[in-house]
Amino acid sequence: MVNELPDANSLLEETDWSHLEHGGGPAALRTPVKLAGLVSGNSGAATIALDHLWNDLLHQGSLYSATPAAALYVAAVLGEPRSRESLTAPHRSELLEWLAETAYAVSVSRERQREAWLDPAVMARNPLFSEVRAIRPILFRGVFPHISDSDKDVAEAALLAAAHLLDAPELASHIGAVAPKVRSVLAVSPKQGYRDAAISRLAAWGEDTTSLKDAAGSMEKEGDSWNRFWNSDRGSLDKPPF
Questions:
Q1: Angle in degrees, CA 215, 221, 104, rounded to 5
Q2: What separation in angstroms does the CA of 182 have from each of 74, 103, 194, 218?
Q3: Which residues contact 22 (CB under 8 A, 6 or more apart)?
Q4: What is the C-alpha to C-alpha distance for residues 159 and 185, in angstroms, rounded to an integer?
Q5: Helix axis angle, 127-134 to 89-105, nearest 10°
Q6: What is the DSSP track for 119-177?
Q7: How many CA atoms lie within 13 A of 119 on its CB side?
Q8: Boundaries of every domain in the chain
Q9: 114-168 pLDDT, tens per residue?
């Protein structure tokens, strides 16, 4: 498999959107036009694209046939210097959060949750899970440069996305480079969802997280203002998406 990032413009133009759908219907009618807003240099158009990504292409963690192509496009935009320069830091942060939730939707831990609600045979027949899992190395290429971003929110969102993408066995060689930042940055984030994800991933990588859990518990007692990423508008990850 070739893991190079595709060209963002070529991907948008050459994808056969007429055969793809999102949560609101056929992708050909809306998706390429809205996604193009990410590189338009227009903040309002970028916001519309982000709303489309969250509300129609990954609603409450649900995957649609247009989701993999959209994820590749987002990664390509983030990976191209000229494209990402047209985005504000908050927009880049939210795109990285979207990729993080896309990666989490096909993770082993999320799969175990769904198997408790659905027949595992149904899960096995869903081609979208294997399709998204197959592109994780490509998505990682778009995410990785941002883990050292000068903007704190962007860097944290990139670490969150990278941590979930590293659920892919074929990316295991990158854990050593990412884990220290997950521990030193993500695990002490003021955002509870980020801390929880960091501790969970570090534990999955075989690291001792006792001190991090103790520190996270203290932060929760003091109050936590984090209510955007895992809030009710995007659905609970502890309840079935229906």
A1: 65
A2: 22, 16, 9, 19
A3: 30, 31, 52, 56, 57, 64, 66, 67
A4: 8
A5: 130
A6: -HHHHHH-HHHHHHHHTHHHHHHHHGGGGG-SSHHHHHHHHHHHHHHTTSGGGGGGHHH
A7: 4
A8: 8-175
A9: 555 555 555 555 789 899 999 999 999 999 999 999 999 999 999 999 999 999 9
